[in-house]
Write a structure and sequence with these properties.
The complex is a heterodimer. Helices cover 72% and strands 0% of the residues of chain A. By secondary structure, chain A is mostly helical. Chain B folds into 3 domains: 13-175, NAD(P)-binding Rossmann-like Domain (Rossmann fold, 3-Layer(aba) Sandwich); 177-209 and 258-370 and 392-433, Dihydrodipicolinate Reductase, domain 2 (2-Layer Sandwich); 214-246, no CATH class. In chain B, a hairpin with a 2-residue loop joins strand 11 and strand 12. Classes of the chains: A mainly alpha, B alpha/beta.
């Protein structure tokens, strides 16, 4: 397609669109008739705002004096490019009063109508304070030298003029007209205004001057007024350029002492080599802010400083964790190897928090030592630093210990190392091998704890389940108990039948662990949280025969509360006389009753509900039973609130 | 921080003038002040506390406010609402913490802003008020934490950003996921090159909707109970109906909500995409609506997809699927894709990613949720240090402009092109007209 064809097509398409807008405008104008409902007229204005042509301007202008629709008319006029919209709004400046006038002034300002400056200037100098304030702001938004001159004329006469001029000055600064902006900011500062406007003008006056604003910045930093001094700190961050940084660093020590911590933080945010020098100088004398900042901006030279300050400074510790300079892990490790016993704990913790892989051999060595505190700290750190290749050493360490505390900490380290295996489905493999090759039943049982934790994050493991099923027949009670624990916490109901069988055949403590697990897994299936193929009722019937205390009864009752079958209701009914669980049983019944009421056993269900309605102590449960009997669905709990 | 004056009694318009005259000298009054107010319980002395005011604190505002009330260096001294019931509820909550008379109630936020002792405000009104109230607060010298969406048009977001720039106030938009670890981690993967060259960012959004009807007119209540005119504020006039106010049924309405509801999630998720793509200084240049999805593209070719569905693990017919996006990673999911990997995460904190080795980067598996506590704490720290918070006005501006541009494309039902520097649509008069709407008198932008 050649250029003239394309131009022709564009012109044709433009004409089509214009014709469509003209047609739509006429339709909307018809809806603006005075006898039309006000909602329709309002909506027509809003649609005219999007597609209306100049043809709509007179009708919209006529609405500007309408208390309800005037704003809707402005919605349209304010965004229409046609100059007749300007003329209509200018005309309204002379005939409206009160809030409607303020609205039109706003619209004129939003459009930046230069031709309205004269009229706005008269309003700005008038006695109608809200209109004058709006006019001053509109003049500032128009932003021409002439309109801003009108604002400056009002400085000292009208308090709103300072805020308006501030607006104009900031726009000039944003547009790169820094000299003009500086003059206007200074005008505001000298106008006698105070508070927020004065602070903002001072800030603008510094920013507009660039590096030449540093003396003013330092002047307010040394002033007595706390708010001004904080403003100085803010501007320290905002004023750009390395020369500014150098100038501020040079003056840093001469700033008021109580301002220096904030100023130092601001310098750290600026960054750069000049800042590091002053930060290190301050850190050397124990400045907390400086020590804390070295974690962000420190270099190799900062490490010695931080290590020296470590005994006394929490900030130094934090920085040693965060500092990212190359070789930091090695230097901190060397410091650990040379440290006095008292300093070791902190350094071990730092290496752990850094996840310093190269520290693992040293940490393993310390974990085998005799100093209990150091040993425990090293084990904690290993949870971060150890990698999959360290698993044999960690397992050996745990197996060799007879102390429960060591084994628990070792569990975490083993878990942490296993979780770093890249392929999620392989994370359990080293632990499976270790369990099979365990040298003792105690070691085998100990390894089942981290194995269970890893399996839970994996969402289950067929190989692990096979192994645990084998271990159900271990000769050692401790192994069977740990296996039952693993199975009881299984992420789905795959081992539910294994668990109920264990509960039926094992003595305590395995019995109770297995029973609780079986009930939990059946409850999940009954509630629909777990899709494993399983008949939860059949399992809960078996569990119900085994319950030996109120806690176990409560577990069964709660799980039955999701089984919508008459057999479940019959089982629950027997608990309505058991003091410890009768309210829970009644609640479970009202939960499962609705679909049963209309079935073959409806009459029997009604009898049970009548009993609950007559005897239950909990008013909410009683009421839900009554509602069911009346045929109404019981009130459901409100859905969880939407997060924001 | 300024000294916190002794509060007196709930304020009415009539007593306001006299009361403001008392503020400066009230410290001399003999009052019984709880020990913690004096900093004797290891807390923070009044001179170092941030005197906080709340404007329009409903259910969401209450969640955010509670995170601030939990901070020892905050004292909630003033609350404002157009509903008497909420005024009473908030003052009672403050009195639980600080003692009788600790918090003054206002119906008109301008009265609250006139108090020189208030350092900062939490603005959690409906969307229609966010930008205008924030601008008034900034001009009054207050630092601002403003719930998102911060402006219901591009024009208001621009004006708000400009006003914050002019006044130099600390501003934090309520897009708290910038300070939530699993989202930070996902962004870290994207920005650090761990996903390779980024090519597509995905942001979850609500099912888009615009309502224009008016609920049936009802008699206006006593303004002391519900001030309907102030509730409307800068939004167009329409007759009163209790449901707008009490049931908060204003969502989705063109006059009250932001961009066809796109901002409800998009203000968060597009914000995270902007951050992940290192696009905080720009916005996409093209927006193509297709059903409920909007395909956008940045000038560098990076794609941004705003969609309500298709998230990992998203139920086919979950009850809320028609309303907002939710997947196996929770509500508000985002996904970042590069040529070497991808990551998807959401509000329940879980992270789906590829390749699995990327998980090595993540140590804190347990950190999750949408708790705004870290975000509000960052705001409070910045009020003191005068540093710039994560969701500052510039970040807010770009994110919100991108969301509005996408919503306008969807409302027009056609592709639009956008100039990020001019913040204007290219060659599309209707789209450009939709960038702004006049505010109702007597409010000034």
């Amino acid at each position: 397609m050649n250029r003239s064809c394309a131009l022709g097509l564009a012109l044709w398409w433009g004409a089509v669109l214009a014709a469509a807008d003209a047609g739509r405008t006429r339709e909307l104008l018809a809806q603006l008739q005075p006898d039309a409902p006000v909602a329709q007229r309002a909506r027509a204005c809003q649609q005219l705002a999007i597609v209306g042509t100049a043809e709509a301007v007179p009708a919209l202008a006529a609405l500007l004096a309408d208390g309800q629709l005037g704003h809707y008319a402005r919605e349209a006029l304010e965004v229409m490019a046609d100059p007749t919209a300007d003329a209509a709004l200018r005309d309204a400046l002379g005939r409206l009063q009160g809030p409607l006038l303020v609205g039109v002034i706003n619209s004129v300002g939003a459009r930046g109508d230069v031709a309205a400056a004269g009229a706005l200037g008269k309003i700005a100098a008038g006695r109608d304070a809200p209109a004058a304030a709006a006019a001053l702001r509109a003049l500032a938004r128009i932003g021409t030298p002439e309109s801003v001159a009108l604002v400056r004329t009002e400085l000292g006469r009208n308090r709103d003029a300072a805020a308006a001029l501030l607006h104009a000055a900031d726009r000039a600064l944003a547009a790169g007209r820094t000299a003009e902006a500086a003059v206007w900011f200074d005008d505001v500062r000298r106008s006698g205004t105070d508070g927020a406007v004065k602070f903002a003008a001072t800030r603008g006056a510094i920013l507009a001057r660039g590096a030449a604003g540093v003396p003013l910045l330092l002047e307010i930093a040394r002033a007595g007024e706390p708010a001004m001094r904080k403003l100085a700190v803010q501007v320290m961050r905002e004023l750009p350029g390395e020369p500014v940084t150098v100038a501020l660093v040079a003056e840093f020590e001469r700033l008021p002492a109580d301002l220096q911590p904030m100023a130092l933080a601001a310098l750290v945010d600026r960054g750069g080599p000049a800042v590091l020098a002053v930060v290190e100088r301050r850190a050397a004398v124990g400045d907390a802010v400086a020590l804390g900042a070295l974690g962000r901006i420190g270099g190799r030279s900062s490490l010695a400083l931080l290590l020296r300050a470590l005994p006394e400074s929490a900030e130094a510790r934090r920085s040693l964790v965060l500092i990212s300079t190359p070789g930091a892990d090695g230097l901190i490790l060397r410091a650990l190897q040379e440290a006095e016993p008292d300093a070791r704990l902190k350094l071990i913790g730092i290496l752990g928090d850094r996840g310093a892989v190269e520290a693992t051999p040293e940490l393993l060595s310390l974990a085998r030592g005799n100093n209990v505190t150091v040993r425990d700290a090293a084990l904690r750190a290993l949870a971060s630093t150890a990698r999959p290749g360290d698993l044999p050493a960690l397992i050996r360490l745990a197996a060799e210990s007879t102390e429960e505390n060591v084994r628990l900490l070792a569990d975490r380290a083993i878990y942490g190392a296993a979780m770093k295996i890249l392929e999620p489905e392989r994370r359990v493999d080293p632990l499976l091998v270790a369990v099979r090759n365990a040298r003792s039943a105690g070691e085998q049982g100990m390894l089942l704890r981290p194995l269970g934790a890893v399996v839970r994050t994996m969402g289950g493991s067929g190989e692990a389940l096979t192994l645990l099923r084998e271990l159900r027949s271990s000769a050692e009670m401790a192994v069977r108990k740990e296996a039952a624990k693993c199975l009881a916490d299984w992420p789905d109901a795959s081992p539910a039948v294994d668990l109920i069988a264990m509960a039926e055949n094992e003595p305590e403590p395995v019995r109770s662990v297995a029973l609780a697990g079986a009930v939990r897994l059946a409850g999940n299936v009954a509630a629909g949280r777990d899709k494993t193929p399983l008949d939860p009722l059949a399992l809960l019937v078996r569990a119900n025969r085994l319950v030996a205390n109120d806690a176990e009864r409560m577990g069964v009752v709660a799980a039955l509360g999701a089984v919508r079958r008459i057999e479940a209701l019959r089982m629950l009914e027997t608990y309505l006389t058991v003091e410890a669980v009768k309210t829970e049983a009644a609640l479970a019944i009202v939960q499962i009753a609705p679909p049963l009421l209309n079935g073959a056993n409806g009459a029997a269900v009604r009898i049970v509900l009548e009993r609950i309605a007559a005897t239950e102590r909990d008013a909410d449960v009683r009421q839900r039973a009554e509602q069911l009997l009346k045929g109404a669905a019981p009130a459901q709990k409100k859905a969880a609130k939407k997060k924001q | 921080m300024k000294r916190i004056p002794a509060p007196v009694r709930p304020t009415t318009r009539r007593t306001f003038l006299g009361q403001t005259l008392l503020v400066g000298g009230a410290a001399a009054l003999p009052l019984i002040v709880p020990g913690r107010v004096l900093g004797r319980d290891g807390g923070v002395a009044p001179s170092n506390r941030i005197a906080l005011g709340g404007i329009g604190i409903g259910p969401r505002g209450r969640q955010v406010l509670e995170t601030m009330l939990a901070e020892k260096d905050v004292q909630y001294v003033a609350t404002c609402d157009v509903q008497a019931a909420l005024r009473a509820s908030l003052t009672a909550r403050a009195e639980e913490i600080y003692g009788k008379g600790a918090c003054t109630a206002y119906r008109d936020f301008r009265e609250l802003l006139a108090r020189p002792d208030v350092d900062a405000v939490l603005i959690a009104t409906g969307d229609r008020w966010h930008a205008v109230a924030s601008m008034y607060a900034a001009r009054a010298g207050k630092d601002i934490y403003c719930e998102k969406p911060c402006g219901i048009t591009i024009g208001l977001c621009q004006s708000l950003s400009d006003t914050i720039r002019t006044t130099g106030r600390v501003f934090q938009a309520g897009t708290q996921r910038r300070n939530v670890p699993n989202f930070q981690f996902a962004v870290h993967l994207a920005r650090s090159g761990k996903l390779g060259r980024l090519h597509t960012l995905h942001a979850s959004i609500y099912k888009l909707q615009v309502l224009h009807d008016w609920l049936p007119a009802e008699p206006e209540p006593d303004p002391e109970v519900i001030d309907w005119n102030l509730w409307l504020g800068p939004a167009p006039w329409r007759p009163y109906n209790k449901a707008y106010v009490v049931d908060r049924r204003w969502r989705g309405y063109y006059d009250f909500d932001s961009g066809a509801k796109l901002h409800d999630w998009g203000a968060h998720t597009v914000d995270l995409c902007q951050w992940a793509g290192d696009c905080d200084g720009t916005v996409p240049v093209e927006y193509v609506p297709d059903g409920g999805t909007i395909y956008a593209r940045y000038a560098n070719g990076l794609k941004l997809v705003l969609r309500p569905s298709g998230w990992i693990g998203q139920p086919e017919a979950a009850p809320n699927a028609a309303n907002f996006a939710v997947g196996s990673t929770g509500t508000c999911p985002v996904r970042f894709e590069g040529d070497e990997g991808w990551v998807e995460t959401g509000d329940n904190g879980s992270i789906e990613l590829h390749p699995a080795s990327l998980r090595q980067e993540w140590r804190a598996f347990s950190m999750r949720g949408t708790d705004p506590a870290r975000h509000t704490r960052e705001f409070l720290d910045c009020v003191k240090s005068r540093a710039n918070p994560a969701a500052n006005h510039r970040v807010m501006r770009r994110t919100h402009v991108a969301c509005h541009a996408a919503a306008i494309a969807w409302q027009l039902g056609r592709p639009v092109k956008f100039d990020p520097a001019a913040e204007a649509f290219i060659g599309d008069d209707a789209a450009n007209r939709m960038r702004s709407r006049a505010v109702r008198e007597p409010w000034i932008v």
